[in-house]
Amino acid sequence: MRVGFAGTPEFAAVALQALLTAGFTVPLVLTQPDRPAGRGLKLLPSPVKALALERGLPVAQPRSLRLDGKFPDEARQGQTALQAAALDVLVVAAYGLILPAWVLAMPRLGCLNIHASLLPRWRGAAPIHRAIEAGDDATGITIMQMDEGLDTGGMISRRALAIGPDDSTATLHDRLAALGGEMIVDDLRRAAAGQALSATPQPAEGVCYAHKIEKAEGAIDWSLPAAVIERRIRAFDPFPGASFTCQGELVKCWQARLAPGTPGAEPGSVLQADAQQLQVACGDGALDLLQLQRPGGKRAPAGAFVQARPGLAGQRLA
């Protein structure tokens, strides 16, 4: 079976590695163009491209696949590469580009998407973040037959994964990536054995949209309930990080624990500050901040932060 692959970040690279380990032939890899990164803004390949080059796989990086879009020449080059690859199926995982109808129709078995939610819940760009932020007990992976809608295609397989009370986007991402790689291999092995990959339409009820994470969302609003803030701290790890201002310095909080707090305390006021904890009042309840990061520093226990700032108790964080 000739399996094309379209993906960009580490989540997708895990799936590509699973396909290669399983022995599938991958004649073409599509990924986003190299992006500037780091202090020197040096152009760096995506995790998918890095893996593809390491394994000697052909790579195409069009900025668009729309033949009538802003980059028609690159789209035509992508079309030529896809035609030459003669794919049985195109596996898509967090690619980042919209696939037009001509791409969806080209492979013999169409295009299969590895989506990190239990569809129809959390269609869209940030399903892992939004599931944690919303307080969902579980999420999962859906292997979907792609159509022209936004994560609206029929479901080929679906497996749930529990969200633990300490899960962050980082930890949940890694488990979901591994599950996605396992599931797409299982489904393609069935297809290679001649079994039809039947797709079940998504139910009309329970549709949610996982909007892209914006950097500004990381600012902590202490007037919110402590449980909401705590979930956001986990949801925004590693990006953009939940942050607050203390004595004019922007500080990121990576870990917190619910606390009873003091009734009537002003949200954002520091209730306790010692070597063991930094407790802050919220709109409902309080949070013990456990792991903080100063600008240019590393993540560290909150006690070290408090020791460097005597007299924090009673101050108000913004």
UniProtKB/TrEMBL annotation:
The keyword Transmembrane helix applies. It comes from the Bacteria. GO terms for cellular component: cytosol. Residues 6-186 form the Formyl transferase N-terminal domain. Residues 212-308 form the Formyl transferase C-terminal domain. (6S)-5,6,7,8-tetrahydrofolate binds at residues 117-120. Belongs to the Fmt family. This is Methionyl-tRNA formyltransferase. It comes from Ideonella aquatica. The gene is fmt.
